[in-house]
UniProtKB/TrEMBL annotation:
Full protein name: Acetylserotonin O-methyltransferase-like
Organism expressing this protein natively: Sander lucioperca (Pike-perch)
Domain O-methyltransferase C-terminal stretches: 117-324
Subunit relationships: Homodimer.
Portion of the full sequence shown: 348 to 691 of 691
Domain O-methyltransferase dimerisation: residue ranges: 14-94
Primary gene name: asmtl
Amino acid sequence: DTELKKEDLQRIIDLMDGFKSSKALFTASKMCVFDLLQSRPGLDAAQVAQEIKASVKGTACLLEACVSLGLLKSKQRACQKPVYENTDLSSRFLLSDAPSSLRGYIQHCNDTVWPLFSHLESAVREGANQHEKAFGKTSKDMFQDTFYNSQEAKLRFMNAMHSIAKVTGRAVATAFDLSSFKTACDLGGCTGAMAYEFTKAHPGLSVTVFDLPAVVEMSEHFRPLHTDNRVSFVAGDFFKDELPKADLYILARILHDWPDEKVCILLSKIANACTAGCAVLIAETVLDGQTPYSALQSLNMLAQTEGLERTESQYADLLSKYGFGDMRVGYTMNFLDAFIAIKM
Ligand code: SAM
């Protein structure tokens, strides 16, 4: 059994090549290849190169890589050059204006996560994020000094959050029966994408999105076509300011940004605002010791934030300190799982 199994070798090759696949996807997305081939399917490499203002050699190479990854299809008639079109997968997730577009998040992965991951070794040695090495910025306040340090950076971050929240929001909003709750507060609710999914799924629920003033001032930019007057926005700092009153507090991708000390400050404020029967709903990818998605997402948090991902029992321990019980977890098989706890 020292014989090399073909599948094992392939598995290692896939792991070694993962970064090449990611970067090919990011590059094609950034250069608008998928949007172009949606409006003009059937272009050859030279035509694509001209449109995206790139070399023919490089474009042909990138297009073939996308074909091999299932992101494009190519057709070739006898003696002619191959022509390209999108696959169903890229039409669903990679176009700028698709309802389930992940383009905003892909751009964040390329521009922010990729440089941070090139310093992963330092992140592991230091147990700290790598904004200073990757971007030359010292940050006292993670959001103000890094993610929101220019209008462009802020919009890019908000677009990234928006795209994941849109794709995952319904699964989170319907993970539990929430019919007994009339008012919710989405703490760090960003663009409101998650809040709109909650009101869509629960006709009796109103949601207040609470986020930093710099974020709330952009909320109009992300308002859906069919406005929903059950979603409202309040600006503030959830570590310092009074929290809006609600029956249900939503924390979607908030706790994974922060170390336990700061999570405890936030949970104690929420607990003080809650009466018995109120609830906290946490949306995070829950570490389960098996799936690479949550474990790799935890490395992502290490390189990018002050936090990390946590297990179900770590959430349960944190919440029980503040008088929450009757906890349940819903594994959604989407980017985010859902965890609910009731104030006793
Ligand atoms: N909940 C959104 C989602 O899941 O799409 C956004 C998650 S994003 C990782 C973290 C959010 O927390 C950002 O919108 C950020 O502006 C907000 N935030 C960070 N610090 C905050 C603070 N001190 N007070 C209020 N909001 C804060």
